[in-house]
Specification:
Chain lengths: 346, 346
DNA sequence: TTGAAAGCGGTACCAA
DNA sequence: TTGGTACCGCTTTCAA
């Protein structure tokens, strides 16, 4: 009974228990676990003891003793957005093989929540930390600076990153979409975005829209801002309705996200409007729905998984440098490619 | 310069540094941090020292010393599925106010990956652990049993849970959908699901379909299984195509998920078929797309966020019981409600 | 190749 | 209300 612990809840085995059973010292057990050189016969005896007891080493004790945890902290605005969950998967894929464990936090687009989460994660002495975006509270910056932990900012291309950045310019990406639409011959183009000031990337896209419309000498005032972040499918319908009510002669709508673009298209269907013949609609992000719905949605494709992957690689490089005593000067600003994906809706 | 650490990277301040600066002992600092009773003037002095140094307590040291971490482990099959990310958000919402930190893992639907992740999370001595589903490897069960950590299994209603379970019977939910379709007058009903044996909940839905079709004396052989988990929108098109090619007189298709239902509807549109007049299509899960697309998708609504919330509450109850020395006999098997949501597509 | 001792940074416990 | 001391479970360091 006590062997499988089904009845009596004994305290879990310690390294010293394993050592005693194997007839060696704690240190030898520690070496076996760390993969250091140990005589093959000894190693086998120890491994057997580990298996027999079902020993699981205590990570907190190890971290305290060695002075290094195996945590990497990641903060995203919303886990519900497939874009960010893809980034998390990319990070996980690159870091897990190195024995690193993600500490994932969801800021819900709030900078003060980000600050709270950073403080909370810092308590676990993460090896490095990945944030989304380049806007942070002053307190967050101070916390990060003092901690000395390498930082990567994702999904943006800030002029002056804290440490390193892996992302792209949402302003430029939006400008490119405007150019695409203008090339297609659309002139009266509207923008559909969120009402919140919290989604900086959404605001940057709006900024890019305005700038490029102005540059092309087109009307840059057809803007509908509706709904809180994260923008979902349900925001698109009311938004396109408002756009068409206000400016009935609008030829194309550029949406801050594929989610709202999809909602907008569905609303158009309901109104008997054909997309893109009656009105063209473009999205952003290349979410799955944009490739599956009819008409397929013209969008800006972004490699969300790749952002995670490259962020992971950047963090690993920083760790390696630090290992070798080199002050981890991360390569600042890695650009991630994006492209306008011409499909049916615009 | 050293005050904000911008130039010299000094090792971060320790509790003893705070104590020295405030002119008190470490213990007093510890008490201030823990919110224990300390003279108001002393507390202020300590707090000032903390702020001045930017002190952040080391969680690993605290955990080691007190013998309890503030981690809760969660394992889901896929973070990319909004269903599971909603569950994670629910968990987070209920646990965060209690100072608990989630350790999130993505099993990618593989039981051996789950086993590896459980082992890895157990190293951090989590206060409790939430798993998805009720199928686990024998090694996973042994690990969990030996660890003594309270376990909650989510998204299923196992007959014999490890500890506690928060979910519902996917078999019964699927049966209910079949009944709904039969009541609507459909008789030649097909099932569209994934090819993989890994998604137990999907398999349970298939099982429920078969059982109820048989019970109603209807043909239960019209089954298309296509695509790996997680099932996405892109699986629905080929699947409905295969279904209609094999059994052209099919009147209704019941899909394992709203994702494939959506893909199927889009494919029908492309073929010039009207849903539900030419063919009815039902989904499962009440994903956002099912409420937004046209036609809106008849589905089984499940409170994914609520599963997370109730799981969190269950875990908190177990912790509280343990605190009071009561052996944490969790309430086994909490049922979460689901219901067939009649909409336009079926 | 292996072992003994010291100590990582906190908290529990008891004494003042 | 506060402080001293032991110690949590592991790794580092040094010696055998």
């Amino acid at each position: 009974m006590s062997a499988n612990g089904s009845d009596i809840v004994t305290s879990p085995p310690r390294m010293s228990d394993v050592a005693r059973l194997a007839g060696v010292s704690k240190m030898t057990v520690s070496r076996v676990l760390a993969g250091h050189s140990v005589a093959i016969t000894t190693r086998e005896r120890v491994q057997q003891a580990i298996d027999q007891l079902g020993y699981v080493a205590d990570a907190a004790a190890g971290a305290l003793s060695s002075g290094r945890s195996e945590f990497v902290a990641v903060l995203v605005p919303s886990l519900a957005s497939s874009n960010f969950s893809d980034t998390v998967r990319g990070l996980s894929a690159s870091l897990e093989p190195h024995g690193l464990q993600l500490l994932i936090g969801d800021t819900d687009y709030h900078l003060d929540r980000e600050e709270r989460l950073v403080r909370s994660m810092l308590r676990h002495q993460p090896r490095c930390i990945a944030l989304t975006g380049s806007r942070h509270t002053e307190a967050t910056r101070t916390l990060l600076r003092r901690s000395g932990v390498p930082v990567v900012e994702m999904w943006d291309a800030p002029a002056d990153p804290i440490d390193a950045a892996v992302g792209f310019s949402n302003v430029n990406a939006a400008r490119e979409m405007v150019r695409y639409l203008a090339d297609k011959g659309y002139e009266r183009i509207g923008f559909i975005g969120g009402a919140s000031e919290l989604d900086r990337r959404g605001l940057d896209r709006l900024k890019g829209f305005r700038a490029q419309m102005k540059a092309l000498d087109l009307d840059d005032t057809r803007i509908i801002r509706l709904g809180e972040s994260p923008i979902t499918m349900s925001h698109g319908g009311p938004a396109i309705a408002a756009l068409l009510d206000t400016w009935p002669d609008t030829q194309a709508a550029m949406c801050v996200s594929d989610m709202s673009a999809f909602g907008a298209i569905m609303e158009c269907h309901r109104r008997g409007l054909t997309v893109p013949d009656d009105i063209a609609i473009a999205g952003f992000g290349n979410f799955e729905v944009s490739a599956c719905c009819t008409p397929t949605i013209t969008t800006v494709s972004v490699d969300a998984y790749g952002i995670g992957l490259r962020t992971g690689e950047t963090l690993l490089a920083a760790l390696e440098a630090r290992e070798q005593g080199i002050e981890p000067k991360l390569n600042k600003r890695k650009r991630v490619a994006y492209e306008v994906l011409a499909r049916e809706s615009a």
